[in-house]
Amino acid sequence: MIFRAPAPIMGCDWNKAVFLAGSIEMGEAEHWQITAAHQLNDAGLDVLDPRRLDWDDSWVQSINNKQFREQVEWELLGLEMAQFRIFNFLPGTKSPVTMFEFGLATGSFTDSVVVCPEGFWRKGNIDIVCAKYGIPQVKTLDEAVKLAIEEVNHAQELLKLYDSLEKTM
Question: Where do the domains of the chain lie?
Fold first, then answer.
């Protein structure tokens, strides 16, 4: 299934879920999440797409703003619970929220892949963090999607192996 913010994430198989973190700036960033979501979903994975189609730039970014808080809490839940995360930094964008989420991921959620081509304004920072924490980088979104599918499928195989071993004990 494809879950888009702020829809409830009920029925998500967290063990097979991929969170799409990356450049969203409305009017600046291409809507890359559509392609990635369909490729991942076609491979049998659940997808968490934070790109909110009814986003309103006039919303006050405050804990007291219901829509804003709902969005941030949805993203944090998906980021934390998903089996895997794709971080896609696009040239010509700043992506401060994605950089924040990437920082969270380096300390807590290691199952991630990064796409950060030349032209992203803080590519050097992203490259250094990836190198330090062993987070793989790929050149294209297609490569990131492929790696996400492989990693989630591998995790599923390990869970099945663990379950079968547990039953024999």
Answer: 2-168
The verdict on pTM exceeding 0.85 is yes
Rounded to whole angstroms, the Cα distance separating 59 from 67 reads 8
Q: What would the 3-class secondary structure string for 110-161 be?
A: CCEEEECCCCCCCHHHHHHHHHHHCCCEECCHHHHHHHHHHHHHHHHHHHHH
Compute CA distances 167 → 2, 26, 62, 163, whole Å. Answer: 33, 50, 49, 6
User: pLDDT tens digit string along 20-59?
Assistant: 998 877 567 778 999 999 999 999 999 999 988 887 778 8
**Top-tier CATH class for 2-168:** alpha beta
